[in-house]
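Sharing in case it's useful to others searching the archive later.

Someone asked me privately for the predicted structure of Dephospho-CoA kinase, so I'm posting the question and my answer publicly. Question first, with the sequence:
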Amino acid sequence: MARIIGITGGIASGKSTVTEFLRQQGYQVIDADQVVHELQEPGGRLYQALLSAFGPAILREDGRLDRAKLGAMIFGNSEVLAQSSQLQNEIIREELARRRDLLAETEDIFFMDLPLLFELEYDNWFDQIWLVDVTEETQLSRLMARNTLSQEEAEKRIAAQLSLREKRKRANVLIENNGSLEGTRQQIRDALQKLERR
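And my answer, the predicted structure tokens:
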């Protein structure tokens, strides 16, 4: 039976660094963000649902979703956030489950990268949960740099997720990602070895 490992971490903690390395090692990774982007393409299920819920104001001139506009609208209003989340989460969960079941037929071990793994209660999908862990300071400075956000905007986005402190308590494996790339990769190699031995 396939073993499925969940990968999570706070926003800007470096999950993509970890998943990229896992792919280089020959593992399959289902990336929830990538799945969401595909579903948000014009004609995709999420695109249609968001358009119905929020109207054409969330579109760019070329008819694609304006993620920045949608993000600003959602993060600025808790009611809109709740409405949007519920709508999107049902569609995303169905699609992730479909892809998970397909991979489980061919892979012994594979990974799913889910930023909101705990928040959206995906815990019971996994044999193990790996947390890509960083200090709060590292997370804040990376997020501000990556998304060109003010400190206040970045703090708001971080606050919208479960705290890293809480996630640490619930994860099986911590991949500490404050230091060098090689240091992070070595921790992944160690975790994979343990996994293969089980």
